[in-house]
Design a protein that fits this description.
Length: 480
């Protein structure tokens, strides 16, 4: 007689076809851990549906059996949001085969993409339609749009275009019991009751599975000016941002901050990265102006603003990209800081945000605490200053014991996150909660907010099968 697990595998196979069910332990490996190899799990099977109907039937089956389902996109989560638990009873639902651009509508500035499309694929489809899809992440070649939606991804263009939430017009979602929520509207005005799609954005697959989305497009970029700017401190960077925004009437599309320590790590650990200035500076800003207006002389605009900034003491020095190659090199440096940090060894990550006006104060306070109390750690705080989001990371100092730093993760996290709260900020700006920050959500979220979240979870997923243990602590349901 077959075990319950083997029987369920057969039923899943009957839905998606034999090629699309991975059940051999040896083949499931890549689906069972995150890209940083920090979270590991086991699974009953990995299903790879090709259509919304297949997703619907898989969920209806798992719902009937009370089996936990873990949706997975490009597996680039920083918080273990797409990794199953250790029980070996959950089903991983990998959406990579749902990778069609269903339609593009340039006149409506929108396109409809399936969840398994990579972000790069959506960029190309928008470009082919003469438009821009502005979400920009270092992982855009592998991360998938379903994951971007489910984590409300941010990235480097948020100050101009907003986070993923602001880039969505409509969603198609398969609910826990297999029903399909058809809300794939491409409307900009639609005041017909509650914003249901909003529930699934940032929910990390705990309320349902996003299978397709209608996305907002923008006029394409035809002019770009990029500079790498040496600044004395974070306060100066914030003043420089205000200056550049005013001088360019909103054309600043990226404003990324990097400390000397990050640039040093990149120069040491990444091939082809050189230190940009002859002498090091404490902080650097990568600023970019973009425009869809062909006549815009952005280089002149940027150069003028930078000259004024140097005179005002907001900047020490600046390099304007003179070619696409130089621009790409600036971006390579910025986008590869996580990789440089990874190569440098152990690190503690804090994906925090505070109001832009309080960033400098926060970095001063939290930085002073790290310097005084974590001698084995090197502060590598970098990120998206334009929207108040810093990756307030701490790397093990060269030659120091990485394990010693890691053993202090809880203590450091508490101090950093408590300070973030005191500064009116968030302990999870753009990477989500996953399984890593469930306890943090409980600690820093008000009782009323938590109660509402649990109410929504119970209403939409009464049996607790959707990504159990992510975002909210697992209930008893969701286990076979
Ligand atoms: C980035 O901004 C990513 O580069 C990754 O959000 C941040 O690794 C990190 O901490
Ligand atoms: Zn980031």
């Amino acid at each position: 007689m077959k075990t319950q697990g083997a029987q369920l595998q057969d039923e899943l196979r009957a839905i998606v076809g034999p090629e699309a069910l991975v059940a051999a332990t040896g083949d499931m490996g890549p689906y069972l851990e995150d890209h940083r190899h920090l979270f590991h799990g086991r699974a009953l099977a990995v299903v790879r549906p090709a259509t919304t109907d297949e997703v619907s039937r898989v969920l209806a089956l798992c719902h009937a059996r009370g089996v936990g389902v873990v949706p997975q996109g490009g597996n680039t989560s920083y918080c273990g949001g797409a990794t199953p638990d250790e029980s070996g009873t959950q089903v991983v639902l990998a959406l990579a085969r749902m990778n069609r651009i269903r339609s593009t509508d340039p006149d409506n500035d929108s396109l409809v993409a399936e969840a398994g499309c990579t972000l790069a694929q959506v960029h190309s489809a928008a470009e082919a339609a003469g438009r821009l899809f502005p979400l920009r992440l270092g992982s855009e070649g592998s991360c998938q749009i379903g994951g971007n939606l489910s984590t409300n991804a941010g990235g480097t263009q948020v100050l101009r275009y907003g986070m993923m939430r602001e880039l969505v017009l409509g969603l198609e979602v398969v609910l826990a019991d297999g029903r399909v929520l058809e809300s794939l509207t491409s409307l900009r005005k639609d005041n017909t009751g509650y914003d249901l799609k909003g529930l699934f954005l940032g929910a990390e697959g705990t309320l349902g599975v996003i299978t397709a989305a209608s996305l907002r497009l923008f006029p394409p970029t035809v002019a770009t000016a990029t500079a790498l700017i040496a600044v004395p401190d974070v306060a100066a960077a914030v003043r420089l941002l205000a200056r550049m925004r005013a001088a360019s009437s909103g054309r600043v599309s990226a404003f990324e901050l990097m400390p000397a320590a990050a640039v040093e790590l990149a120069a040491q650990h990444l091939e082809g990265v050189r230190r940009p200035f002859a002498t090091p500076h404490p902080w650097y800003v990568l600023a970019e102006l973009t425009s869809s207006c062909p006549g815009d002389a952005l280089d002149t605009l940027l150069a003028t603003a930078l000259t004024a900034a140097v005179e005002a003491g907001e900047a020490h020095d600046a390099l304007l990209a003179q070619s696409e190659r130089e621009r790409a090199a600036f971006w390579f440096l910025r986008e590869h800081i996580p990789e440089a940090q990874r190569r440098a060894g152990a690190s503690l990550k804090h994906d925090i945000s505070v109001p832009v006006s309080r960033l400098a104060g926060f970095v001063e306070r939290a930085g002073a605490w790290i310097a005084a109390h974590v001698p084995e750690g090197l502060l590598v705080a970098y990120g998206h200053v334009g929207d108040g989001n810093l990756h307030f990371n701490v790397s093990a100092r060269p030659g120091s014991d990485g394990a010693a730093l890691l053993s202090r993760a809880g203590e450091v996290r508490r101090v950093v996150h408590d300070l973030v709260r005191d500064f009116g900020g968030s302990f999870s700006a753009e990477h989500g909660i996953g399984q890593l920050k469930v306890g943090e959500l409980e600690r820093y979220t008000s009782a009323v907010e938590l109660e509402l979240m649990h109410t929504l979870k119970r209403a939409l997923d009464p049996r607790g099968i959707m990504n159990p243990g992510k975002v909210l602590a697992a209930t008893t349901a969701g286990r076979a």
